[in-house]
Amino acid sequence: MKMGVLGSGMVGQAISARLAELDHDVMIGTRNAAKLKEWQSINRKVKIGSFAETAAHGGMVFNATLGTASLDVLKMAGEPNLNSKIVVDISNPLDFSKGFPPSLTVSDTDSLAEQIQRAHPSAKVVKTLNTIIARIMVYPREVADGDHHIFISANDAGAKAQVAELLKSFGWLHIIDLGDLSTARGTEMYLSIWLRLWGALGTGNFNIKIVK
Amino acid sequence: MKMGVLGSGMVGQAISARLAELDHDVMIGTRNAAKLKEWQSINRKVKIGSFAETAAHGGMVFNATLGTASLDVLKMAGEPNLNSKIVVDISNPLDFSKGFPPSLTVSDTDSLAEQIQRAHPSAKVVKTLNTIIARIMVYPREVADGDHHIFISANDAGAKAQVAELLKSFGWLHIIDLGDLSTARGTEMYLSIWLRLWGALGTGNFNIKIVK
Q: Does A107 sit within 8 Å of B107, measured CB to CB?
């Protein structure tokens, strides 16, 4: 499938490389193509484009930008290029400007995912993958043989099912459907404990498993 | 040990009963002793008192009140009755006034635990147990044989160690020390996903296990 990945940081690179490995036709969108030169030399199948070119390329579009930049980047991507498409929002609403730990830029009464959905009403926003580090997003089996959970939130049931299939192709075994997009407040607020766990455990290489 | 439990809802009742079962000398503090009449008939070892009497009784004091009432209740308990004592804060900063899911009354830049600590600087506030339902707090082995995690946050290392010992006596196997009391922001913000997981799973009878 044609995939557009907005954002060329660690998350955008990891998602793009994994999608290409799974034989999707991938373009990664960046403001600064020069910084991807070395990365592209080992990821030759991935095309590089502007945000607008990348959104136009993708049948499915990933928002892998910094949370503080997401709304601007999606605006640059352009409404016609996002119209009716699935937008997989992986961004974290974190403000790093005041040091570590960064603080959340939204409170429990809203989420970045909902802000993106309001700004792009024709897009089908699906929130997922924002609760782990980039490597685990795309190679979940590397942690505890994949015996841990990922969450998914969206208003459009069909879009959610399609993204869940993609997650399975990454290797995800346990996907919890939290409900509509407002449940992204839960996974976004989760970042607060995730950051402290990272500090306490001394590694970001972990996830949570729900036990009953 | 002499224990004072402020709050007579499900959490206060569960903590009081479990502490009494473990042979502590327990008083439960309430505004309305009458409502505890039936409960006390099967929990005869637990004394009932006012908030001030209960705080005075306890060598360790538990805040098991609603988050929206906690600061008021601790004020009624009285500074001299809390002075230098460990205050185990189990409260959840949730506002139920606008229906379900309730929303958080603090944002990521503060926590109810820190508010309590600021209001009672001589107390040793320890945040823990607020991330699961009452039954699991005191009988953690009933879920997945106890193979899941509880978190603890406090500024005073000695107080934190003493509360960790108490958690072990409840049956907790895996206690993660998140750090100072500001890390309670993490466990309090966690309530946002916890509430959505409760909705998605159809039960509050679950917890999370950290896997690496």
A: yes
